[in-house]
Amino acid sequence: MKKILLAGAAFGFAMSSAQADIMIATVGPMTGQYATFGEQMKIGAEQAVADINAAGGINGEMLSLEIGDDACDPKQAVAVANQLAGNGIAFVAGHFCSGSSIPASAVYADEGIIQISPASTNPTLTDERPGGADGATYRVCGRDDQQGETAAAYLLENFADKKIAFVHDKTAYGKGLADATMGSFEAGGGTPAMYEAYTAGEKDYTALVSKMKQEGIEVLYVGGYHTEAGLMARQMKEQGMETVLVSGDALVTDEYWAITGDAGEGTLMTFSPDPTKNPAAADVVKAIQDAGNSTEGYVMYSYAAVQVYAQAVAAAGSTDFDAVRQALNSGDFSTVLGDLSFDEKGDVSLPGYVFYRWSDGKYAEID
Fold first, then answer.
1. What is the reported pTM?
2. Is there a contact between 358 and 339 (Cβ–Cβ < 8 Å)?
3. 10-residue stretch averages of pLDDT, the chain, 367 residues long
4. Which of 130, 153, 310, 347 has the highest local Cβ count within 10 Å?
5. Domains of the chain as residue ranges with CATH
6. Backbone φ and ψ of 202, nearest 5°
7. In sequence order, what are the beta bridge partners of 245?
8. Is the dihedral of CA 312, 316, 321, 326 positive or negative?
């Protein structure tokens, strides 16, 4: 492969640079209960734009960044996508929630906009991307079937003799992750003790917790986001349960511990290998932290999504949709996540998932 190198509200649009030539955007939940992830995306994308522009831009042109708010709502995501198309956006780093990325991807395909999601893990996003092999939907994160295999293997190895419940929030992300994990768990010889759906956004899950207590559930796998998982962890503790909570990459925010307090001790989750430990990311990590911002969760993934687009444009010599798409399909990109490329679906070549444990208010990879 060719090696590409480059230095490194309903809708809530905001301009980062008034004089830029190349219009790009990042879209995620800037408001609502998952706004912490929108903030992660914003921090990463803004830093990437600042660094690229400071190094001279792309082919002599500067980047300008718009911030779009979809609140993780599919209808709002489509509305934002259409608004961005009307604004002449060439590239979107987004969305966060799979339930937003998937419908928005159809708009971007129709409008000739490149989409690289830093966080949407549902396999459907790339398995059924508009245009198929000729499509322009990509992601720099992993997939839920990969995440589910990792989680199931861990459950089978460490909790084979425990009663395990699987619950999900009915979203494309949450249900997809829970089903992928449970499917791999069953394929490996495990037998789930319970499978339930819950409603996202509620504050009281004591009925579900009481049912699990009655059933003697010892391990709870949550397919969903940090807010609901945190409430479940706290409410299990309040009912005297010592159940281990296991979940996925939507727990990679300090807000999880803010919700759980000590009840979050020992929570396990899957996420990609810590990108902040990548030597290639050291300067970026320092710049973000020196600005008083966190590098948690999907900050570096959002930075990488912008990096990849910038390198593809540099290789293509223009922002022409087909030329950039071809560069993305054939290129090998140097990013804060490491060197990466994309397969014929738009999935990334990076390593998959590892386990993290929450302890004393912080999460860290398990050795």
1. 0.90
2. no
3. 38 42 97 96 98 96 98 98 97 97 97 98 96 93 96 97 98 96 98 98 96 98 98 98 97 96 98 91 97 96 98 98 97 96 96 95 92
4. 310
5. 2-142+275-340 (3.40.50.2300), 144-271 (3.40.50.2300)
6. -80, 165
7. 220
8. negative
